[in-house]
Hints:
Helix content: 40-55%
Largest sheet: 7 strands, mixed
Distance between the termini: 52 Å
GO molecular function: DNA-binding transcription factor activity; transcription cis-regulatory region binding
Number of helices: 11
CATH superfamily of the largest domain: Periplasmic binding protein-like II
Number of strands: 11
Radius of gyration: 22 Å
CATH architecture of the largest domain: 3-Layer(aba) Sandwich
Shape: globular
Strand content: 15-25%
Keywords: DNA-binding, Transcription, Transcription regulation
Domain HTH lysR-type: 1-58
CATH class of the largest domain: Alpha Beta
Family: Belongs to the LysR transcriptional regulatory family.
Protein name: LysR family transcriptional regulator
CATH topology of the largest domain: D-Maltodextrin-Binding Protein, domain 2
Amino acid sequence: MESGDLRVFQAVAAEGSITKAAAKLNYVQSNVTARIRQLEEDLHTVLFHRHNRGMTLTAGGKSLLEYANKILGLLEEASRAVTSSTEPRGPLAIGATQSCAAVRLPLLLAQYHRRYPDVSLSLSTGHSSQVLDKVLRYEVDGAFLSGPVPHDEVIAIPAFDEDLALVSEYGMQELADAAAKPILVFTDGCHYRSVLEEWLRNNDWKSPQIMEFGTLEAIIGGVSAGLGITLLPQSVVAQSAAAGSVRTHDAAMLPHTIRTNFVMRKDAFVSRPLQLFLDELTANQSLNEEALP
Length: 293
């Protein structure tokens, strides 16, 4: 079993398809098929269920994936450790929710890049559970996540606090008028969605229609058009509110603030680029008011 075989296995597990994994890895499909079969022969077990919809992991496959993620993560960490030098260089992968990436991070990332231009900085976004999964699978060095992160494999470093608000179309003067409106949210796994749904239940609102959107822009656009209401940080909708596109509302029993943390695996290798990013995060006060448009 070689690291290359584990990377192929990891790709097939993530994509759920030999064809998609081959395209992702830029391999021919027959090569991917052969390496998966060889792995199964070497381990004397079936790693995937094959069916019309693609491939899903067996119990043995799930167990191997956990080890593959750890092994490949350690190999990446070893490479970073060997290539560390006085001048920081190498990859630094950061994850974040869309709302955080849209407002809070641009200045921080720009400042970091100016100071350490040889670091290959990347940012991936998604809703909270997607981003946490990237941390757990060693796909990012750390990520910005809102709210508590109840997972025993990670540590959470406080980054900043967000003021929350219910957001409606600008013409809606009273929050009570929103009772019949759908709520516009990301897919399940978004922390803001969880907070909003809990608030609705606690206030005995009739179960609203839920409309799921894939991007922050689509949610704000839908709210502005009168399609429904949502819950977002004040910082994210400040410009739209100032322009008269949306209106923000304070609401009783709604949490006024929510903390965003920088989340890392407890066993993560802290490379020099990552340590410098943590130092920047700790020292940089511009993540608060100065960073807002």
